[in-house]
Design brief:
heterodimer; A: about 850 residues; mainly alpha; Four Helix Bundle (Hemerythrin (Met), subunit A); two-stranded antiparallel ribbon; 25 helices; 4 strands; about 5% strand; B: about 110 residues; 5 helices; about 80% helix
Chain lengths: ~850, ~110
């Protein structure tokens, strides 16, 4: 088959639907990556406009430009949009677009999940935008501290928009993180062992795992605060056994890792782009990986450094001050690795390099002020002043926006297929760089002089007037610079000439394809034997196009790619991806019904939407799998591989495993919250602890034992060719027993409005009930699939997935019910 | 998967032990501690003991990482996990040393 014919066939197979329909039915990572990034940039523009409104207000003392109510909404929405609707989605978009190309795959692990995540992001973001334009936007600051955000401080619907809208958007982040993790671990080019993986993929692996473990505490916090606001369950009300500090713990358990979730992908961009600009390879590849992992994990251990001013004991302050200084070490390792790379190479001052230099100058200053605020006495002085705002912007703009702009210009040929012709980018860089430093250096200064953040105006006579004016002028120069970047990219995308393949002479796989990249990425999947495959084998792109790799034959019009061994990268299975479908957008829309019902207090919408979600998910999963035909596939080079749907641990098992990691973090955060209130909250113990009795624990324990045994029995019978029903019946009986124990606990704590303890009982029992129901549903679904022919003695992967969820439900039932009944048992 | 677990494991254990020590400090300073008939001096002993146990766990982990039974498939995973194992030892010594030198609940 000629390369052109192969290209046409593969394009027909992989491309999205033509016309407007394609926007809503595409599941291709090229489209969705662009859509994610484009939408994130729109939110960046909106957030930027809000920033300009803030600077206009603060330019002069006693400004009448905005009143306090509007100002509170504007600064809250600025922070919320930039953190949740711009930075994280831009990272997701970049990962979705670039990862399969860098790894040598044709798409991400779960294409429909990518699309579902995108639509959740769009719908959730739209809710927040609607609130803003309607004048009912959140107004308690981007970290929404209660009691300011409780019904007492924020009686309207404003805070509900934040809690519900952001939780909706976070579905997108969790989806993307599951997707990215499974893709990096299992969807790579043959031969790409872990030590040959592109450095960007290592960074994204760390980030994805951080999202899976960092976002659930915030989701939990949002759920608890919304339950308090909607139904009066007093998790954060001191008088009823709650504690507003619990919110701060849950928020910063998310919020501090979030800073590194934003920084690490940008560091990945630097580690990828800088060596190419310096015409060399990255110095200390293994050390940089170690530094990225260290930074990622250490960032979880320093959440309390945002709470130094809350009156916690000296020892706790010292713990987190010491831990905070630790992060300077891996950050320093990366900075020195980059400087060493520049030293050993022959750097070229191209536009991406300009942005990287801007990053160095800015981020190092932000890092140093970070070490300053890690020191408790200094933090007490600077807390809640504009110094902290300036520090945060140095870290986030210097450490994220500048590197991503370097990356945008670096990968622009791949995105647009055009060569940059109009040279507005250099002017834009200098405007942004100078404007930014004018704005935020001045802001450090005014912060040290004592100006508080989040106050809508200030009196003259403190020596702040000129500094604020300078800061505002700098802000507008920065905005003009960013505007010019967008014009530069737009003009070059539309008018510039076509560009040849690999214009930077880089070594990673994304440059092995034509510009812009085709819908299928690789005409055949390459075998790689080096970290920079194109340096190792310059003829590789031609061999890929000629179909000399794996899966080069457009077999049966199927969307295929390979699954590999995690460590060695040896090919193990063939995956067939689903076709274009409107299912993701429909599912996101119906999911939105749950959130909208909660927001508008039309609670009848919630169960209705949940039924819709369950039905659509069943439909979603029904199309997966195999009925046994065409089990083995000749992938080329004499290699026969099984279909991924027929192996004991299919892709869905891996997706479930990492989703459960996030779920387990949510549960651990819930138990932490319970322990925190028990230990610290002033109005504990509650009037009465749950009386455990004999029946409840025994019934629960029986369920915990029987359910996992039952699903294993079902699998065993299935593999021997027998019926699954006896085992499934046992699993269902076990689930029913666990559910009974949970319901008994809820009935014993009849009024969750009474005390935080009672409310916690309802939440833990509810969590157990939901997971028991999920496990039972999956067991029934697997049995139905047995009758439909998808599950068989040699294809029991779906039963393994049900087993995973059943085991999880049993573990959380055991821990949850024990945690509820322990205080009553020992007192 | 063993390579990935090796790489992420040591510092994850640091996070768990560090959080546990922080939790113990919270318990020592709560009203539950005197209710158990214990004083702040007992609390100090418990905290220093927990710190030493945590250091022991991290050192044990470094030893485990060098065992053949958990040998990685790639040399990179072996090197990186050992570096991170030692980093976790330093991290637990440094981040929890306040148990020995600062006031417990003041």
């Amino acid at each position: 088959m000629s390369p052109l014919r192969r290209h046409r066939q593969l394009t027909r197979i992989w491309q999205s639907d033509p016309g407007w329909k394609g926007w809503f039915t595409t599941v291709n990572h090229n489209d969705l990556g662009r859509m994610f990034m484009g939408t994130a940039i729109v939110f960046f523009l909106i957030g930027g406009i809000l920033a300009m409104l803030i600077r206009a207000q603060l330019a002069t003392p006693r400004s009448a430009f905005m009143g306090p109510e509007v100002y509170a909404q504007v600064f809250t929405m600025h922070g919320t949009i930039m953190m949740f609707l711009f930075a994280i989605p831009l990272i997701e978009g970049a990962a979705i677009y670039f990862l399969p190309k860098m790894l040598g795959a044709r798409d991400l692990a779960f294409p429909r999940l990518t699309a579902f995540g995108y639509w959740c992001y769009v719908f959730g973001g739209s809710m927040l935008l609607f609130a803003m334009f309607a004048g009912i936007a959140p107004d308690s600051g981007w970290f929404l501290y209660p009691p300011l955000s409780s019904t007492l401080g924020s009686p309207g619907i404003n805070s509900d928009f934040w809690l519900i809208g952001i939780t909706f958007v976070e579905i997108s982040a969790i989806s993307a993180a599951v997707e990215i993790t499974v893709t990096i671990l299992r969807y790579r080019a043959p031969g790409m062992s872990l030590d040959k993986m592109p450095i960007f993929a290592w960074y994204l692996l760390v980030v994805a795992l951080m999202i899976l473990t960092g976002f659930p505490p915030l989701i939990l916090g949002s759920v608890l605060l919304e339950l308090e606001r909607a139904f009066g369950w007093p998790f954060f009300q001191v008088a009823q056994g709650g504690d507003s500090l619990l919110w701060q713990h849950l928020f910063w358990l998310f919020g501090h890792p979030e800073v590194y979730i934003i920084f690490l992908p940008a560091a990945g961009v630097i580690s990828t782009v800088l060596p190419v600009m310096a015409r060399t390879t990255l110095l200390g590849y293994a050390w940089v990986i170690a530094a990225a992992v260290a930074l990622g994990v250490l960032s979880f251990g320093i959440w309390v450094h945002h709470m130094f001013a809350t009156g916690i004991p000296h020892m706790a302050l010292a713990f987190f001050s010491a831990a905070s200084t630790l992060v300077a070490v891996p950050t320093g390792i990366q900075i020195f690795a980059w400087l060493g790379t520049l030293w050993k190479g022959r750097p070229q001052l191209k536009l991406p390099m300009l942005w990287i230099i801007g990053f160095f100058a800015t981020f190092v200053i932000g890092g140093l002020t970070g070490v300053m605020v890690a020191v408790v006495p200094f933090d007490w002085q600077a807390h809640d002043t504009h110094f902290v705002v300036a520090h945060m912007h140095y870290v986030l703009v210097g450490g994220f926006v500048f590197p991503f702009l370097a990356g945008l210009y670096y990968w622009m040929p791949l995105l647009t297929g055009r060569k940059r012709f109009f040279r507005l980018g250099e002017t834009a860089f200098w405007l942004v760089f100078v404007g930014f430093h004018v704005t935020f250096l001045a802001m450090h200064w005014v912060g040290l002089l004592g100006q508080r953040r989040r106050t809508f105006t200030y009196e003259g006579g403190h020596g702040w007037e000129v500094i604020n004016l300078i800061s505002s002028i700098g802000g507008f120069i920065t905005a003009i610079g960013f505007g010019l970047v967008i014009i530069d990219i737009a003009v070059n995308t539309v008018f510039a000439a076509r560009i040849r393949r690999d214009p930077w002479r880089a070594g990673t796989l994304e440059w092995a394809m034509a510009n812009p990249s085709p819908a299928y990425n690789f005409a055949s999947l390459p075998r790689v034997s080096a970290r920079d495959p194109l340096y190792d084998d310059p003829a590789l792109p031609h061999r890929i196009a000629r179909g000399e790799g794996y899966l080069g034959d457009a077999y049966k019009g199927q969307r295929e790619t390979l699954v590999v061994d995690i460590a060695t990268g040896e090919p193990l299975q063939v995956v067939v991806f689903p076709p274009n479908t409107p299912l993701p957008i429909i599912l996101a829309f119906v999911t939105g019904g749950i959130f909208l019902g909660l927001l508008t207090k039309l609670y009848w919408m919630v169960p209705l939407s949940l039924i819709g979600v369950a039905a659509l998910m069943a439909l979603w999963a029904w199309g997966l799998g195999s009925r046994g035909d065409d089990v083995m596939r000749d992938v080329g080079h004499g290699l026969n591989l099984p279909r991924a749907a027929t192996v004991p641990q299919p892709p869905g098992w891996w997706g479930s495993a990492f989703l459960l990691l996030a779920d387990a973090t949510f549960f651990a955060s819930l138990i932490f919250g319970y322990a925190f209130l028990w230990t610290v909250a002033p109005n504990w113990p509650p009037p009465a602890y749950l009386e455990p009795g004999i029946i409840g624990p025994l019934v629960g324990l029986a369920g915990v034992v029987v359910a996992p045994f039952g699903i294993r029995l079902a699998e065993r019978h299935l593999r021997r060719g027998g019926t699954m029903w006896p085992g499934v019946a046992l699993a269902l009986a076990g689930a029913a027993a666990m559910a009974t124990a949970a319901i008994m606990a809820v009935r014993a704590a009849a009024d969750p409005e009474l005390h935080a303890y009672d409310a916690i009982i309802w939440v833990i029992a509810g969590y157990v009930l939901v997971h028991v129901a999920l496990a039972a549903g999956m067991s029934i679904y697997a049995t139905v699939r047995r009758y439909a022919g998808y599950v068989a003695p040699d294809r029991f992967g779906e039963v393994r997935i049900a087993r995973l969820w059943t085991d999880y439900a049993s573990v959380v039932a055991l821990i949850g019910l024990a945690a509820l009944q322990l205080p009553g048992a020992v007192t | 998967m063993i390579d990935v677990i090796r790489i992420f494991g040591p510092l994850f254990v640091w996070f768990a032990t560090f959080s546990a020590i922080y939790g113990l400090q919270g318990l020592v300073c709560s009203e539950h501690w005197p209710a158990l008939g214990l004083t702040l001096s007992h609390g100090r002993v418990a905290l220093v003991g927990a710190w030493l146990v945590a250091i022991g766990i991290q050192l044990g982990l470094v030893a485990v990482l060098q065992m053949r039974r958990v040998a990685p498939a790639t040399g990179l995973a072996g090197d990186v996990s050992i570096w991170l194992g030692w980093s976790a030892v330093v991290a637990i010594i440094w981040s929890s040393f306040p148990v020995a030198v600062t006031s417990t609940c003041g």
